[in-house]
Write a structure and sequence with these properties.
Number of strands: 16
CATH architecture of the largest domain: 3-Layer(aba) Sandwich
Number of helices: 11
CATH superfamily of the largest domain: Zn peptidases
CATH class of the largest domain: Alpha Beta
Strand order of the largest sheet: 1-2-4-3-5-16-6-15
Mean pLDDT: 97
Number of domains: 2
Shape: elongated
Distance between the termini: 12 Å
Largest sheet: 8 strands, mixed
Radius of gyration: 23 Å
Helix content: 25-40%
Structural class: alpha/beta
Order of helices and strands: HHHEEEHEHEEEEEHHEEEHEEHEHEH
């Protein structure tokens, strides 16, 4: 059965590449993926596969019914792009100014489409049902997973698997993690209100830039002095905006940052400690503030049995040379919501580009991945789905 799966996937790999490159040329931002969703839905309709669009927004869900009774296995891929101007010089370069598939979601979609087509062709010999989840808006909270689940995409599902093509690890490598795998990803915004004035007369002002600079440094105490050293956490300020003339002391500064955690205890503590430090810093600088903490995706926590099944399945794929457990990653993923409802696991499929000493990271304008990794991902997901029926 698995040999048939592998042979069919190999014979349609060219189609997988063509789909990926088409999607790469026509990227759409989170919550705006109208044409991408239409492309996916039409693909299934042409194959005669049961499919439903507008699931929780722009989501698409297809179902493949095996000829024998069995479990219901879900496979998920995301399909949104990022607000990045592509800098790659390739024939399939993005045709949309300022928008790019800089995270591999075009590859995820192509992988799952062709894998679903293959499972459909084999359906008479398969057991159970396969739910194919094409999710919109992974890149921007609140994301698409939560609304798709609320719309019923996991109804009746026993197990779910998902993967992310990861360009910074070698092609042929599968990285997995039992338990906490990817972090909860939150965002915070702080606006400090001082009193502006002439740069030559600082004593007549309440310098919001000085206060904000102190705040950035003071926030570093949260992880180093408030969080248990054995509990991973990150607090980073990514934006510091105080636009003004060179000789004017700004009256207002806006900071935007992110907090990453694995435990809900640390997540709650960071939200609380952030405001304490903001309040104290503003008090000492005689400034006012506004503070908002946005809860993003929870941590991705893989289930043990399903992860062990994934490890076994990956070892059966000829192109996989290494299967290894990795350290938790502080990046975020709304696949976390699926794992809160059903058992499953999420893993990385190595996709380092060929003949490139160092791959550009995800979300970079020159991001690229090895398309051969799509075939590996399809074989690994497909094998896991078949093994989960045993």
């Amino acid at each position: 059965m698995k040999e048939t799966l592998f042979n069919k996937l190999e014979s349609t790999f060219k189609e997988m590449v063509e789909i990926r490159r088409h999607l790469h040329q026509h990227p759409e931002l989170s919550f705006q993926e109208i044409q991408t969703a239409h492309f996916i839905k039409s693909y299934y309709e042409k194959l005669g596969i049961e499919v439903k669009g507008n699931v929780g927004g722009n989501g698409v869900v297809a179902k493949i019914y095996g000829g024998k009774p069995g479990k219901t296995i879900a496979l998920r891929a995301d399909f949104d792009a990022l607000p990045i101007q592509e800098e790659n010089d390739v024939p399939y370069k993005s045709l949309v100014p300022g928008v790019m598939h800089a995270c591999g979601h075009d590859g995820h979609t192509a992988t799952l489409l062709v894998l679903a087509k293959t499972l459909h062709e084999m359906r008479e010999d398969l057991s159970g049902t396969f739910v194919i989840i094409h999710q919109h808006a992974e890149e921007y909270a609140p994301g698409g997973a939560k609304s798709m689940i609320e719309a019923g995409c996991l109804d009746g599902v026993d197990v779910i698997f998902g993967t992310h093509l990861w360009a910074t690890i070698p092609t042929g490598t599968i990285h997995y993690k039992v338990g906490p795998f990817m972090a909860a990803a939150d965002r915070f915004e702080v606006t400090l209100q001082g009193k502006g004035g002439h740069g030559a007369q600082p004593h007549k002002t309440k310098d919001s830039i000085v206060a904000a600079s102190q705040l950035v440094m003071n926030l570093q105490q949260i992880v180093s002095r408030r969080i248990k050293p054995v509990d991973p956490a990150v607090v980073s300020v990514g934006s510091f905006v105080a636009e003004n003339a060179f000789n004017v002391i700004a009256d207002k500064v806006k900071l935007v940052g992110t907090a990453r955690t694995f435990s809900e205890e640390s997540r709650d503590l960071i939200e609380e400690e952030l405001e304490k430090i903001i309040k104290g810093t503003c008090y000492s600088n005689d400034c006012n503030y506004e503070y908002t903490y946005f809860r993003g995706y929870p941590a991705v926590v893989n289930h043990a049995d399903e992860t062990e099944l994934l490890v076994k399945s990956a070892a059966e794929v000829p192109e996989v040379s290494t299967v290894e457990e990795m350290e938790p990653d502080m990046a975020g993923e709304d696949f976390a919501y699926y794992l809160q409802h059903v058992k499953g696991t999420f893993f990385f499929t190595g996709a380092h580009p060929e003949e490139v000493p160092q791959a550009y990271p995800h979300h970079h304008p020159k991001f690229e991945f090895n398309e051969q990794a799509m075939l590996i991902a399809a074989k690994t997901l497909g094998t896991a789905a078949l093994n989960a029926q045993e």
